[in-house]
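Q: Could you fold this chain for me?
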Amino acid sequence: MTFEDRALVDRFLDMLAAEAGASRNTLIAYRADLERAAETLGGVLGNADSESLARLGAAWRDLAPSTVARRSATLRRFYGFLVDEGLRRDDPSTALPKPVHQRPLPKVLDSSEVTRLFEAAEDRAASNESLALRNLALLELLYGSGLRATELVSLPRGAVREGHPFLILRGKGSKERLVPISSRAETAVSRWRENVPGSSPWLFPSGKKHLSRIRLYQIVRTMAADAGIPPERISPHVLRHNFATHLLSGGADLRVVQSLLGHADIATTQIYTHVDSNRLVELVNTRHPLADRR
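A: Sure. Below is the predicted structure, expressed as structure tokens.
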């Protein structure tokens, strides 16, 4: 990437951070997509024309449709920014590929697997061993509150307080939301916090910083293996999916679940309604006014 293009990318990312409230992880992903595109285009990005961008489709043909869609969206936003800022007159992004991407249904565990996962974690925590207490607290917050991995590992030491059934999170786009904390999670966090050094600003410290998302991923997979669940079937995000799916299965309102998850668009939340189709049929048969007519 040329020096001029790197400066344009920096300006674009500064805009995303300031005006759209993009998170650090989002900015890293945008930069990576733009750098890859520049490399494919022979080092030219800001001045690339439609013909050059059209060739990206061939270069990306072996990628997953979701990856192509994401990279195309990044470039469209980048060139739209250049036009808005008067840095170029035309927008060449109309030549970018537009793959049809069908969003897959989220992976979830069934209720018996969730029960096994908690039983194994609780058995280990009964020893009061420090890491076992930490892992149980992580599990309670992932499944019981639907936190994102980044939100969880970066929780301040005093985020969960006794007698306060909610905590305020700043999630994607710097948007704040209320997250419920169950009495089980409060107890698990309280037991773990006794092992956290008083000098740590984090609830889940690791070295000089907090626990990383990668380490959280590894911990969750290890807990799954302990419970006899294939590790490849689980991740922190799968537990967040379970939080949403099981709430809807229990009759929770879709708008409430949207708020708890911090989704900007309810369409993102609606995907969970496709997971438990049997429950939806049951709700129609039992709650609809015509259900009483025979």
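A (continued): The radius of gyration is 23 Å.
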